[in-house]
Request: fold
Amino acid sequence: MANTDVETLNSFLRGEISAVETYRQAIGRVSDERIRSQLEDCLHDHAHRVESIRERVEKLGGKPVEGSGVWGTFAKLVQTGAVALGDKTAIQALEEGEDHGLADYQRDVDKTHGEARRFVRMELLPAQKRTHEQMSRLKKTVH
Reply:
C-alpha cells in the first residue's frame, strides 16, 4: 500500500509543481496589480502543497519527484500562449489548470490508504477547491 500511496502522492506532486511553475509564469506577465496579487495567493497555496506532499512522501519512505514532467511542459506552453493573448485568457487557462487539478484529486483520492487518504481528503482536496474557487471568481471579474 505504501508504494501505491507514494506513486499517487508523487502524481499529485507533479501537478502541484506544474501549478507553481505556471502561476510564476503568469505572475511575471500579468499587468493588473489586483490580478497579480490573487495569483500570488494561489501560487503560495500551491507551493505549500508541494512542500506538504514532499514531506508526506518522505514520511512514507518514498522519494519525492523533482519536476512536473510532461504535464508541466504542456501547461507552460498553454500558459505562454494564453498570457500573450491577455490577462483574461491567462486567467481562463489557470482556471482550466485548477479544474484539472481538482479532477485529479477527486479521481485518485481512493488510490490512497489510511493516513495518506486522510491527508488528501482533509488537506489537499479542500486546498485545491479553494484555489479553484478563487480562479473561478477572478475569471468572472476580469474583462
